[in-house]
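Quick one: structure tokens for this chain, please?
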Amino acid sequence: MTRDLSGTGVFVYTSRLPSVGDRLSLIVHVTPQNRVGLMGEVVRVLGKDEARDLDIQPGFAARVTNPSSTYAKLVESGIT
């Protein structure tokens, strides 16, 4: 699950936390049939203890390193 999807980054809720600096290939599932792939670099990790203190799920923030036109249209559409 994602939140805060923007033209430059995304936050991904997950218990499988990468390390800051890791480069990842991500797939955003807009609908079961509509998926958008992107590359990102982890810029922040929110561990379970900090997430619990903030009353949200753990996850990580990634900077989008190669936003495609499809990704840009998704962000512009406001579906995020």
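Strands lie at 2-3, 9-13, 23-31, 34-46, 59-64.
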